[in-house]
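Chain X:
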Amino acid sequence: MEKEETIQKTADYMKEKLAKDSSGHDWWHTYRVWHLGRKIATAEKADLYVVELASLLHDIADYKLHNGDEEIGPRLAREWLQGLSFKQEIISHVPEIISNMSFKPNKKSEMKTIEGKCVQDADFLDAIGAIGIARCFAFGGYKGNIMHNPKIKPNPNLTEKKYKKAESTQINHFYEKLLLIKDRLNTKTARKLAEPRHKFIENFLEQFLNEWDLEI
């Protein structure tokens, strides 16, 4: 199959697979990551084909929604690519990107290729700004998490193990992840795109906490 055909086939597959997601990891998240990934990859001169495929497949099975299983996403992506008879280099590269996508506290990106860095940056960008705020609370509602409790303090220095198991609040999630993203981005292009999104989060938190404390 031609490249455009395989991209469209993969997009159609993911659109159907994620159609009913209500956790913030839905098709429209994937769609935004796909197009942000293309934008970043073009500016950074990465392999656009690999970036598109990895962007489309990056949430084929997010570990947070599959009992912490970090192998299921890369495995399902590999099976999809094998089913379309991709070259071995792509069958290896795309799952490797997906396996290293997740945010890790107190740890820099483990992406080895510029393509992986572009996809990770696109995913991280969709976790901040106005949409990032909406996705944060959508995921909290999906998981049944508390929105805010001033007695539960955020811990931005969690270890990776504790981060994955921590029972926190959605407001704390801003301090434990979302506000840290800007400085974890891999590419110059993404860092520039992140600036207004990061500022929006800071403004939101100031407004939220002022309203919570009945100061305004």
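Chain Y:
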Amino acid sequence: MKKYFFFFILTGISISLLSQDLTFSVVADPQITWLKTDVDIVSNDGSVFGFNGGLVLDRYFADNYAFSTGIFLWHTGGKLLFADSTAIAFRTGKDTLAPNTSMAYHLQYITIPFSLKLNSNEIGYITFFAHLGVNNHISIGKTADVSSMDIDNVGIPDEINFFNMSYFFGGGIEYSLGGNTALLFGIYYTNGFWDVTVPKDYRTTLNALSLRLGVRF
């Protein structure tokens, strides 16, 4: 975890030196995440706590408008309830879930967003912002728990797609500490539109509600 954090910091510092119109922020997003499907026989069975953290890079093309990107490490997942018996390919071998079995997914992604950020004029020490765009997710970790079968944190590499996409929107405030430094507070909603699971008889998408905390430099 530490090596990812220092990589994000060093990348942001290096890039920020290239342009006066480019700022970077270090952010941490505690969140609630869940899975949603398009069929009744496989349904959401609850949310899990997730975490998203990394760098936001803002390239301003006007005083209050910026193209925004960055790099993040996203810990996410959710729980699904399978009404019928279902074959699952675990790393330890294939197994069959009995009807009405719940499975918890624990997923990790490297995320690179492409987005637009809109800022208000500063009012006192506060600037309001809106932020929306598209996330590109690359899978780096995929495990599952099935408590009824004593399966705990077992890999499911053949069950999860390598690439995923979602859209997000949110907003919040920046509280100026002087110069270019500011504290960030925001709320974000993320909705997946790419199937998380490998081709099956249903589609599964990731969703999240996040609280953003950060510092802009």
